[in-house]
Design goal:
The chain is mostly beta strands. The protein has one domain (11-170). It is built from two helices and twelve strands. The protein has helices at 15-27, 104-107; strands at 11-12, 34-42, 47-48, 54-58, 61-68, 71-76, 96-100, 114-122, 129-137, 144-148, 153-157, 166-170. A hairpin with a 2-residue loop joins strand 5 and strand 6 (71-76).
Length: 173
């Protein structure tokens, strides 16, 4: 799946799911920093393959964020970055590689302590969907925003403003 042999997504449907499954994991990240990140890179087009997972390395662990259709997935330490990538059998037509720390704007938050982590939901009850995460950093106004951009990954520095459609729920003890 997604160019990665034997990779299986772990769908999250709500912030409640995230809190049940990952609260302890995310609480342990407070005070730690992102060491590096990887995205799938299309070599022929020299651009980010937004359909592939975003991998963030923190304190020796890989946090693998993936948008797939309208779903969102988080896995931990499930992708081997040394394994070859093959986008659904496309081979040389779409050669891929993992590219490290490729966006200058995102690089500004590397090695900054994480202060808070939020889950993001979009829509109105009962039809809201889990769409991603925001990580806040000490001394930085914007957050690292990783979300589902409608069947592709979005990663940018941005702070979601909560309103009747956008929910920003802190994942905490």
């Amino acid at each position: 799946m997604l160019g990665i042999e034997k990779y299986e997504l772990n769908y999250l449907n709500s912030c409640d799911d995230v809190i049940k499954l990952h609260k302890q994991t995310f609480n342990a990240l407070i005070g730690k920093s992102i060491d590096s990140y990887f995205v799938q890179w299309e070599k022929n087009e020299n651009k980010w393959n937004e359909d592939g997972p975003i991998i963030i390395l923190i304190d020796g662990k890989q946090y693998e964020f993936t948008a797939y259709q309208l779903e969102y997935s988080l896995t931990i330490n499930k992708i081997d970055l040394s394994d070859p990538l093959d986008w659904y059998g496309s081979g040389d037509e779409m050669p891929l590689e993992w590219k490290k720390n490729t966006f200058k704007s995102i690089n500004s938050i590397l090695n900054k302590p994480i202060t808070k982590i939020y889950g993001l939901e979009y829509g109105q009850e009962p039809n809201s969907h889990f769409v991603g995460f925001e990580l806040e950093f000490d001394g930085i106004n914007d957050c690292l925003h990783i979300s589902n951009g409608l069947d592709c990954n979005t990663m940018k520095l941005h702070r979601t403003i909560a309103d009747d459609r956008n929910k920003r729920i802190e994942i905490k003890k």
